[in-house]
Amino acid sequence: MSGSTDDGSQPRVLVAGATGGTGGEIVDLLDRRGVTVRCLTRSSANRAALRERGADEVVVGDLFDVDDAARATEDVDVVLSAVGSTVVDRFRGDEFVDGVGNRNLLSGAVDADAEAFVMVSALGVGDEPSSVLGSVFNLFIPPIQRAKAEAETAIREAPISHTIFRAGALTGGSRSDDVHVARPGARLWGPVSRADVARVVVAAPWTPEAADETFEVVRNPLVADRSLAIDWQMPGG
Ligand SMILES: NC(=O)c1ccc[n+]([C@@H]2O[C@H](COP(=O)([O-])OP(=O)(O)OC[C@H]3O[C@@H](n4cnc5c(N)ncnc54)[C@H](OP(=O)(O)O)[C@@H]3O)[C@@H](O)[C@H]2O)c1
After folding, report:
1. Contact 206, 34 (CB under 8 A)
2. Burial state string for 209-237 with b = 16 or more CB within 10 A and e = fewer than 16
3. Residue 140 falls within a domain, yes or no?
4. Which domain CATH number covers 97?
5. Residue nearest atom 24 in ligand 1 by C-alpha distance
6. Separation of 46 CA from ligand 1 center, angstroms?
7. pLDDT digits (tens, 9 = 90+) for 43-80
8. pLDDT exceeds cutoff 80 at 6
9. Fewer CB atoms near the end CB (10 Å): N or C, the chain?
10. Does pTM top 0.85 for this prediction?
11. If you take atom 44 of ligand 1, which residue's CA is the nearest one?
């Protein structure tokens, strides 16, 4: 991604999951970075809070609805997806926002000719060997992990530049700017703050080394020898 679009306007970035822990950190990071920030939420009650947090535009919609996903992605240049199911959602049905929701979002992004799509996924998703932490995620929330895997596959096959982050156990707390990322199969394990995940998610479309990559991401000095050195570039420099 460059700093401006073909017509010279600033890039429009959609944050899906903007009211969530990671999504909120993403919105904070995008503030005053020369991009138009559009946030998606299912509830209009979140409009004012999202505006206050830095959203230039708020779309109210549900990613299970294809038309809502199309509205949310209209005229966007970048989609950052931090949507996710709650543990309770696991018992409500067999469709999850992690799967069908991300796929609807992806279709909208492709139809809108967006340049980049970034998804927050989880350790253990996919066929590569994973750490014990990834296996624990697979054991406790298998349908959600499978839904994420389906979305990952669709994203990798779509005609759009992408980056997927398979995160370790998400925590609160501040940004360290010291995360470890590695290609799938590196078996990374450990926690990572939502703020640290947000930084790499925001940076990915502006970081050439992150294009069309899937990364495991944690903050754990014990796995430093397995991690890649990436010069993350933020929008706006
Ligand atoms: N918890 C962990 O340890 C862990 C580990 C690895 C990966 N992850 C993944 O990391 C991601 C971020 O997690 P988080 O804890 O920061 O998220 P979160 O706080 O649970 O937020 C989830 C977001 O998803 C949105 N959402 C849910 N269903 C939706 C739908 N049908 N349509 C549109 N939006 C919908 C919600 O928006 P509204 O309610 O405003 O609509 C909310 O903003 C998730 O994909 C999660 O699975 C989590």
Report:
1. no
2. ebeebbbbbbbbeebeebbeebebbebee
3. yes
4. 3.40.50.720
5. 83
6. 15
7. 999 999 999 999 999 999 999 999 999 999 999 999 99
8. no
9. C
10. yes
11. 84
Q: Name the nearest CA neighbour of 207 among 54, 41, 78, 62.
A: 78
Q: Is residue 165 part of a domain?
A: yes
- Pairing state between β 36-41 and 12-16: parallel
192 pLDDT more than 80: yes
Question: Which residue has a Cα nearest atom 6 of ligand 1?
Answer: 122
- Domain assignment present for 1: no
Dihedral, 161, 199, 164, 223 alpha carbons, nearest 10:
130
Q: What is the pLDDT of residues 131-188, one digit of tens each?
A: 999 999 999 999 999 999 999 999 999 999 999 999 999 999 999 999 999 999 999 9
**Residue 17 lies in domain:** 12-226
**Looking at this protein, which amino acid is placed at residue 72?**
A
**Within a domain: residue 90?**
yes
Amino acid letter for position 207: T
